[in-house]
Structures are given as C-alpha cells and as structure tokens.
Amino acid sequence: MTAIVEFDPIGAASIKGALGTDAAVLPGLDALRAHLELNVFEDCVVLGPSVDQQDVFALAEDMRLRRPSLGVVMVRRRIDTAVLTDALRSGVREVVQERDLAGLTTAVRRQHEIATRLREQVENPEGAELKSRGGRVVTVFSAKGGCGKTTLATNLAAALADSKRGSVALLDLDLAFGDVAIALQLFPSHTIADAVPIGEDLDGPALLSLLTSHRSGLQALVAPMEPSAADTIDTPLVVHIIDLLREEFDYVVIDTPPALDDNVLAAFDRSDVVALLATLDIPALKNLKLTLETLDLIGFSRDRLKIVLNRSDSKVGLALAEVEKTLKAPIVAQIPSSRDVPASTNRGVAIVSDEPRNPVSIAIGAFIDEYVIASGDDAIPAQMRTDRRTTRRWRR
Ligand SMILES: Nc1ncnc2c1ncn2[C@@H]1O[C@H](COP(=O)(O)OP(=O)(O)OP(=O)(O)O)[C@@H](O)[C@H]1O
Ligand SMILES: [Mg+2]
To answer: In ligand 1, which atom is closest to the CA atom of 154?
Structure first.
C-alpha cells in the first residue's frame, strides 16, 4: 500500500487517482506516523505539495535510520536543484513535479520494488551466514572510441538479465558522453550526477532509487545529461557506487569512456573480468597494446583481462595470429560485424534480446558462458548475501 499526506483535497484526490485503490490519504503527519507504526509493511509514503518541506525532510531523515525500506516520495509544485539536493541528502528517495502523474506512478512503483528487494535481503536466513563477496563485475573498455564498448556492455547486461541468472546492474562510466540511455531507449528520471549531493549518505536504498529499469529487467545507472556534470563525480564516489552495486546485484556491467582515467582504473580494480575491446585496425590495436603495457606497468593481473575482437570478420589484411603475437596476449572472443547491430541500436533494443540467433548474439552469449559465469563460481544471489550496508560507510 501507499500512504498519502496532502492537505489540499483536490491535490490529494489527484495523487490518489494516479496511484489507484492501493493508496490511502491520511489527514496529517501525526496520523502518518501512527499509520507507519501499525503497518510495518508499508513501503511508500507520498507527501504532497502542501506538506511543509522541512517536515518532509525531517520525516525522511528519521525513517532512513529507523525504517530503511520505506520510500519517501515528495511532490512539489516547483523543483529546483536546491530542493532536489536537500531532499536527496535528507533521505527523500524521489521528488516529483505536481503535474507529472506518470512520473509519480513510476516513482511509487520503484519504492515497492526497492522495499521488496531490501526485505528479501534482510529476511533470507542464509543471508546472515554467507559472507558477502559481492556480485561479479565486468568492465568493457577500449582506449579508442567507437570500437563497440557501449554495444558490448548493453548487450552483456541485457543477455545476463534475459538469462534470469540473477539481478543485473549496468553502470555508464562514460560520464561526459555516455549513451547507454540512448542505446537502450531509457527515459531516466535520475543520473549518476544525483549521487553527488547525497555524498557520504549514499547507501543501497538511495542508490537503487537512482536506477532506471529496462524492459529486460536490468537496472541502469546512466551518465549525466550535461557533459559538464562529469567533473563533479570523483573517483571515491565512483568506487563507492561500484561497491554498493556489487552488494545489491549479482552482476554489474560497466561501460567506460575511451580513456584510461582514474575512474576506469578504479573500475578495473573492482572487476572480475575486464573485456578489452579492439577492432582490426592499426589505431585500435596500437591503443590496445598501449593499454596492456600500461596495465602491466601498474601490475594489473592479466588473468582478468579478456581481449575481445569486434567486427572480427572485417577483411583488412591483418591476420589474427600476427595480432596476438604483437599483443603478446590471446584474443578470447570474436564478435562478427552485422548490419543488425546499428539497426537494433537505432531502435533502442539490445540485439541479444531482439535476435538471439544472430551470430553477434551467439558470440556475446558464448563470452558470458565462458568468462562472466565462471565455472564453479556461480554468483551468489544478491538476496542471499550479507547486508553490509549498515556496517560500511563511505568517506571521501
Ligand atoms: N559488431 C558490430 N557490427 C556492426 N556494427 C557495430 C558492431 N559493434 C558496434 N557497431 C556499431 O559501431 C558504432 C559504435 O559502437 P559503440 O557506440 O558501441 O562504440 P563505443 O566504443 O561505445 O563508442 P564511444 O567510444 O564513442 O563510446 C555503433 O553505431 C554500433 O552500432
Ligand atoms: Mg560508448
């Protein structure tokens, strides 16, 4: 159920109308608190525009500690950055504009999903015993742009989600020019930039509320809409986000920018598998060689590096064996070229979901079977892992 507090009867009726019969309007905040005491499974409260902002923040702050599964959704007539920042910092999960009733419905549905996920984690008795080791992290990288990183990352995530092997998060670390949202035709209400004002208070539930669901079931944390916002996201925050995603999900797939920056190195550090992507052209191969040499220099284990050749069937006169000799590393997977890839990207669908028999989809599936689902190391479902959220806090 969802509890609503809004003093204006017309506003209250409109909110209730959007949320349906499973929502009840309460006369005020005292009544709301009493309702919450009685209804321990209440997952979501919606506080309308007439409820004092400071009262909303105080309630959210209080509930964040006492009842982390409860999602507080705030409806405002006008939303500016200051309100949003203060709201997220206090523990309000979503701020929705008064007339955005579709956005309100989505926000409330998300709170119920988050509450269900959190309850599963807490209630699962095995969870208390199993030592948390986190979900598997796969990072896709190439130092040259346009090699197919976003294509591979979105398809890996969609294929994992389709396979129902576990929960899947997709993180777009191409902070300035990320296009995961476009590639999957997502309409995000939040981006990674919204994690900045929450700062050290960012915990599992807050992070979950920043994700956007894709129809495959994967949950994406998309890049900021404004390229300039990329500078506000520093590496300690990126590390914290990856750690939280590992706690919450069985698989975390990370898309990257075409540059070996600190964020990318931090992602590598936390990855079980790093798919290094190249195409059969000299600039891409030169950049891949430089990447390998840099990673060797900093002592990064080659075991986790998996070289993947995209558009491997291009007839460009470069022999695979020669390439491997130059790189001093094996190419473990080859993804053929297909016109269906840009066609599906343009339609905002993952080719693995749309055309599972396409040779591109088969190659991606084989990579997953071979390297992502390591033998004898099947991911422990996230809900069976110990909830570390209460014991770890991130500090800048
Ligand atoms: N196997 C393939 N066959 C045909 N086209 C492909 C293939 N892989 C990728 N492409 C196309 O190549 C283009 C670049 O791919 P993508 O955006 O995934 O690269 P990227 O490495 O993420 O680029 P950027 O560095 O700009 O982020 C896209 O139009 C994509 O559809
Ligand atoms: Mg990309």
So the answer is: 18
Pocket probe for ligand 1: among 341, 351, 360, the residue whose CB has the most ligand atoms within 8 Å is 341
The per-residue pLDDT of the chain, averaged, comes to: 89
| CB contact burial 139-177 (16+ within 10 A = b; e otherwise) | bbbbbbeebbbbbbbbbbbbbbbbbebbbbbbbbbbbee
pLDDT in tens, 138-182: 999 999 999 999 999 999 999 999 999 899 999 999 999 999 999
β-strands 212-213, 219-221: how paired? antiparallel
What is the pTM assigned to this prediction? 0.83
Check which CATH number belongs to the domain holding 322 and give it.
3.40.50.300
CB distance 279 to ligand 1 below 6 Å? no
* DSSP-derived secondary structure for 364-378: HHHHIIIIIS-TT-P
pLDDT at 193 over 60: yes
Determine whether the shortest distance from the Cβ of 143 to ligand 1 is under 6 A.
no
Residue with CA closest to ligand 1 atom 30: 342
> What is the pLDDT, as a whole number, of residue 354?
92
Q: Are residues 118 and 188 in the same domain?
A: no
Same domain? For 198 and 331 the reply is yes
How far, rounded to the nearest angstrom, does the alpha carbon of residue 234 sit from its chain's CA centroid?
A: 17
Gap from CA of 147 to ligand 1 centroid (Å): 5
CATH code at position 17 = 3.40.50.2300
For ligand 1, say whether the CB of 345 is within 6 Å of any of its atoms: yes
| 129: in domain | no
Binding site membership of 310 for ligand 1 (Cβ less than 6 Å)? yes
Q: Which pLDDT score is estimated for 124?
A: 61
Of 123, 152, 168, the position where a domain reaches its end is 123
**Which domain range does residue 49 map to?**
2-123
Residue 280, token pair as written in the block? 């059969």
User: Which residue from 150, 254, 280, 335 has its CB within 8 A of the most atoms of ligand 1, so it is best to mutate?
Assistant: 150
Would 222 be classed as within a structural domain? Answer: yes
